[in-house]
Amino acid sequence: MPSPRERMVISTALLIRERGAHSTAISDVLEHSGAPRGSAYHYFPGGRTQLLCEAVDYAAEFTANRIARAATSLEAVDVVVDGFRSQLLDSDYRAGCPVVAVAVEADNPAVIERAAAAFIRWTGLIVARLIADGVDAERAEELAMLLTTSVEGAIVVARSTRDVTPLDLIHRQLRAIVRAETRSPL
Fold first, then answer.
1. Residues 47, 96: contact at Cβ < 8 Å?
2. Where does the Transcriptional regulator LmrA/YxaF-like C-terminal domain start and stop, copy by copy (predicted)?
């Protein structure tokens, strides 16, 4: 069972993906996590910035673990897209990517650096997976960036239109590209 501190970090990530960084107050995190009132500054002496940074790190780790567990590049595409697709549908289109939310909204360099580190980590894992599946390193870097930016953009459009069609379309196209590049079977 997660500690009160861990629950606060998880709650922050969950709230950010639905509300954005600016609209996620510490009082909301305390209520969502069930943590005692004084615990925020006890566990996060760096205040809201520290909490946002750790929430981004949590979200980054969650997605990185999903990518890292994929046995093939096609599976990596599937787990990333399927995870975000499920989040969108399960939340009635309220839940996007918390890393995008802070990257767009944050005005604190420390938080923006954490978001950048998350994207760099994700693309790096995808590059490694593509290379392991026989894709040239330079092409793997291009494809990893295409995959990451396409999925994140499709999430934004799907949230705003309340329709997963953009994500489904990107999923099919990315699968076709990765399948051709890796010469993978369907």
1. no
2. 74-173
